Amino acid sequence: MRTSDHVAAHGTTDGRLLVGGVPVDRLAERVGSTPFFAYDRALITDRVAEVRAAVPASLRLGYAVKANPMPAVVQHLAGLVDHLDVASAGELAVALDTGCDPGSISFAGPGKTDAELRRAVAAGVTVEVESRTELARLVRTGKELALRPRAAVRVNPSFAVKGSGMRMGGGPQQFGVDAEAIPSLLGEVSEHDVDVVGFHVFAGSQNLSADILVQALEKTVDLVLELAPHVPGTVEYVNLGGGWGIPYFEKDQRLDLAALGSRLTDLVDGRLAPALPEATVVIELGRYLVGEAGLYVTRVVDVKESRGRSYAVVDGGMHHQLAASGNFGQVIRRNYPVALAARATEEPAGPVTVVGCLCTPLDVLGEEVDLPEVEVGDLVAVFQAGAYGLTASPTAFLGHPAPAEVLV
Ligand SMILES: *Cc1c(COP(=O)(O)O)cnc(C)c1O
User: Fold this and answer.
1) Ligand 1 site, residue 286, Cβ cutoff 6 A
2) One fold for both 3-39+292-407 and 69-285?
3) CATH of domain 69-285
4) CA 106 to ligand 1 center in whole angstroms
5) Would residue 384 be called left, alpha or beta, if left means φ above 0 and alpha means ψ between -120 and 50 degrees?
6) pLDDT over 80 at 166, yes or no
7) pLDDT for 333-354, tens place per residue?
8) Is 240 in the pocket of ligand 1 (CB under 6 A)?
9) pLDDT tens digits, one per residue of 361-390
10) What's the CA-to-centroid distance between 356 and ligand 1, angstroms?
11) Which one of 70, 107, 132, 307 is separated from 93 by 20 to 30 angstroms, measured CA to CA?
12) Domain 3-39+292-407 belongs to what architecture?
């Protein structure tokens, strides 16, 4: 996808890029400082509606809070989706504050501490256990609190999902219990101690291929149906994961949502639901719901030439938006889309390298990007910043102030 497509998705007025209908340069005055993250509420709402229209009505749509845990964003999404997936007690607190039903919150992630398990059991959420020993600690926690914990087993499948930006299943993994070990694990469970409600399978992230995602979902459904008879009670919960990607780089094509949705309908309504009629079937999406709704906005503090190359130095950088610098799981550094916020539709004047203010060569936000003539004071907008931005960045590195965040 080209930068002009991202500009068009956000919209402009007189060439000024918009967030939530407000020109970014005006929003910068409202925020009062740069850099900042701005998230477009309407784009999030629209994205949820698109997903709803594509997937079967029987499917519960979940939001993976770690993609963007800003409380206002989570609150907004809590009113739109059916389920919240958290991966720490901090995220759990944000999710509970939305007022959503604790029964529609699941807690995943390796290394849950005893204190986190206590909080989760007390809250009444579903704990997605990642190991045999974690299940044992959960049972012990339930006894201590005189509460029956609700658990789902996270399964590490034998298959991996090809083409994922981040692999989280298949082969040896810190995530989940190996599929082949689950029958014996469930054989040891006493229904008296813990309510094992079902399974969670999440094998990979940032995938742009509907075909590959469907193949992974088919294998996931096969696996769940194979494991279901080993659950001591009724299977009430099946979390099929997600991993739906968004286009970050110019060569990236948008995920074919219609194709994915129709095959998901066949799979869920045609196979899974008839076999497990009591099960609530969940998908959990993170970046797909929020990533494209966010901009990281930073101001140019210096413009310089060095041996034939033009540089724009901004007041932000990788300490706020690590992913755009290429240091968050990328093998080859590629540019995230960037534009001048107040002249977003102007013709480019030539390549400029946009660098952050950190004293390290890693701090590059855009290498040789085609931009209009850049001046000191211009606002640079980095697109696709709504997920894994602020909270996935090393904010303390170099000791600069934290950025603001706004939901518009
Ligand atoms: C991180 C995570 C997600 C969300 O991943 P995205 O790539 O943002 O969609 C979903 N489920 C689990 C268990 C996760 O850890």
Assistant:
1) yes
2) no
3) 3.20.20.10
4) 12
5) left
6) no
7) 999 999 999 999 999 999 999 9
8) no
9) 999 999 999 999 999 999 999 999 999 999
10) 28
11) 132
12) Beta Barrel (2.40)
